[in-house]
């Protein structure tokens, strides 16, 4: 179901006034405009989400909502980071899980490692374990925040700072790090001692589910270790989609 977005917000998106804005300014506008119906989507598998969480916490700790999706196939290092974040920032992480009956049916029909059999089955698994829980996480929100950056992969080339996310009910989606490089993200992590996933130090710039993530080689793009057996223009899970077809932002 589509959410009703205020005309002034639509005008702001269309004006593209945040295209070159500082991440903190984009976050401040998002929190001022939508809180408490705005939350950060963090995978705990990339430094970008942790940088945004740190920024939000500095701007308005009482309004810093964060949700994540536990697919049931995550690395122990990812769970460890969730707990470190809870302690460091004294926040609740809103964790959403796949529906047990949907996982059970899928596994009975296609096995536990269905993602290696075909792209369709990989997307089915992502649909059950990620996309459906995301819909529940977004329920009640008018806006959400993600750490997408165009240089991460070809599937993210058209990401904009503030977008109308037609794929997810016309909600507003903020990508405050859209103008940042990987180096800027890591410099922020170092400067403010932001906790990040320990697997980043082992050649995993982007950490997803255990069976679908591997370390990358020098020169490969940041998401080359995700679903590495597929064509690179297919490598999204269904959470951040729409950029390929329509350029996403207004
Ligand atoms: Fe399933 Fe792999 Fe997608 Fe995780 S990343 S939900 S294991 S297909």
Entry keywords:
single chain; 250 residues; alpha/beta; 6-stranded mixed sheet; disordered C terminus; binds iron/sulfur cluster
Give the helix/strand layout.
Blueprint: H1 7-15, H2 23-34, E1 38-41, H3 47-59, E2 66-69, H4 76-89, E3 93-96, H5 100-110, H6 119-138, E4 143-145, E5 162-165, E6 171-174, H7 182-192, H8 243-246
Parallel strand pairs: 1-2, 1-4, 2-3, 4-6
Antiparallel strand pairs: 5-6
Q: How would you describe what is shown here?
A:
By secondary structure, this protein is an alpha/beta fold. Helix content is 38%, strand content 9%. The protein has 8 helices and 6 strands; from the N terminus they run H-H-E-H-E-H-E-H-H-E-E-E-H-H. Strands 3-2-1-4-6-5 form a 6-stranded mixed beta sheet. Helix 3 crosses helix 7 and helix 5 runs antiparallel to helix 6. The chain is globular, with a radius of gyration of 17 Å. The C terminus is likely disordered. It binds iron/sulfur cluster. Iron/sulfur cluster (SF4) binds next to helix 6.
């Amino acid at each position: 179901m589509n959410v009703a977005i205020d005309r002034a917000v639509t005008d702001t998106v269309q004006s593209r006034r945040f295209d070159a804005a500082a991440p903190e300014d984009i976050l401040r506008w998002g929190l001022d405009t939508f809180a408490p119906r705005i939350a950060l989507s963090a995978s705990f598998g990339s430094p970008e989400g942790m940088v945004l969480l740190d920024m939000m916490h500095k701007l308005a700790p009482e309004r810093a909502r964060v949700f994540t999706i536990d697919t049931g196939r995550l690395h122990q290092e990812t769970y460890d980071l969730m707990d470190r974040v809870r302690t460091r920032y004294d926040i609740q992480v809103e964790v959403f899980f796949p529906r047990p009956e949907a996982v059970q049916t899928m596994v009975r029909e296609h096995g536990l490692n269905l993602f290696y059999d075909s792209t369709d089955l990989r997307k089915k698994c992502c649909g059950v374990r990620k996309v459906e829980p995301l819909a529940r996480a977004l329920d009640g929100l008018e806006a959400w925040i993600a750490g997408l950056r165009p240089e991460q992969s070809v599937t993210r080339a058209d990401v904009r700072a503030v977008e109308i996310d037609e794929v997810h009910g016309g909600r507003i989606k903020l990508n405050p790090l859209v103008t940042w490089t990987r180096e800027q993200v890591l410099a922020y992590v170092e400067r403010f001692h932001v906790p990040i996933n320990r697997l980043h130090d082992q050649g995993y710039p982007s950490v997803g589910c255990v069976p679908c993530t591997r370390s990358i080689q020098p020169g490969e793009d940041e998401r080359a270790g995700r679903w590495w057996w597929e064509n690179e223009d297919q490598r999204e899970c269904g959470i951040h989609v729409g950029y390929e077809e329509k350029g996403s932002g207004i």
